[in-house]
Amino acid sequence: MALKSKLLAGAAVLMLAAPGAAFAKSGDEARIKALEAQVADLKAAVEALRAAQAAPAPVPVATQQDVAALRTEVQDLKVSTDKSVAALKADAPTATVTIANAKPVIASTDGRFTAAFHGVMQLDTAKYFQDDHLPTAVTVRDLNGGANFRRARLGVDGKAFGVFDYNILLDVGGSGAEDAGRIQDLWIQYSGLKPWRFRIGAFAPSTGLEDSASTNSSLFAERPAVSDLTRGLAGGDTRIGVAAIGNGERWFFSGAYTGALVSSLNSGAAAFNAPTFDEQQGVDLRVAAVPFQGKDWMTHVGATASVIAQPADLGPAAAVRYAVQLRERPELRVDGTRLIDTGAIDTKGLVAYGLELAVQKSSLLVQGEYFDINLERRNPAAGASDPSFSGWYVEGGWLLTGERRRRNIATAAFDGPTVAKPFDLKKGTWGAWELTARYSTLDLNYAERSATVADRVRGGEQDVWALGVNWFPNSAMAFMLDYYQISVDRLNTAGAQIGQDVQALNLRSQFAF
Known about the structure:
- By secondary structure, this protein is α+β, with helices and mostly antiparallel strands.
- The chain is built from six helices and 21 strands.
- The strands form two sheets. A 16-stranded antiparallel barrel has the order 3-4-5-6-7-8-9-10-11-13-14-15-18-19-20-21. Strands 16-17 form a two-stranded antiparallel sheet.
């Protein structure tokens, strides 16, 4: 208020400045000096007022406290907002959907949960050629050609909680005829202790090189006879068990304790899954390694052991209570007939050993396996010894279009090729083409010409030559044309020849994702 009074006084002085000029003219010097002194005071007051207005006013203590409180409130609001945003993100959809090589996959954004849908269609169309003038003792005189879905599968596999894997697979395909449907795979696996995995459920344990390869990418429509027989002793499809599996880039181990097959009343499985008093107990072991490899070549070696520690107890009413029966088809299943068969052998236990070897050089792959099967009779009759059987095969594939089959380190087996140029007429590309060949032999005879009836086993010996050509239009499709020359040498209980030579031609059409 004092500054305002001074300003008013200054204004009044300025209003008197004009009359001051008149006074000067009249020579009143004293009054002029007085007025000049007042003007100087007024200027000083104005400068003081300007200085006061330019200086910042001190902030009251109360205002600083308010600012501090406000800052605390803002920080609390930020924390609350962050929590709300995190909650909204947790509730919001976080899954991604992709389709790669025709396989739909749903996955959480953090990768801890996945679900991949997979399916297989394998349609086999075959023609058998048999001699019209077979000996009268031969009972299998007409193998039925035609078509059937060897495999028709649909399932889902994936990851749960980051460290568990799972697989669910149903199949309605079959040998000779389609089935009503059954569980093929149903298991969970802990994979959080790398490089080891621990599995429980229904699955096929690893029992050899050919057995461990995917049926979607095999060289021929079916496995070699000895491989297919051996895998079903203590392992095979739908086998219930627990397993420990481990692998690195160049080594593999699998050990499984197994029980019975998944019980089924369907046509294809009824003979193998009759009600039992005590289920079979077995063990499957396999080790494999890549001891040598170079830029475009590698060698693979391995060994397997399958043990039936306790055969299934079929009950006191069964003709053979603890039966083990070895039998096999001629590497083609449009007709499901088995041309070699030991019949039921009363068995205390069984051990089968196998050796495997493979060599790959660029587009050429050659592999083979040998198996030796030994049974221990239960309460053998006089003069009966423990029988043994054996078999082996060698097969190869040469990719004409330059691709190479991929070695799967998780299974220690060879999968199909990655198609470099998928089939496309507009681009003039034709996919991948492969030539294949195989020889296999399986001998289920033991002392077949012995005079001691209780000792001899006349299961028969089967040799198969096969040639084929495979066409992979893309990563999901395959067409396989195979020719088989099958020779069976087998005597019946009377000593008559019931074996025969058979030729077969098969075309497989496959879609797998």
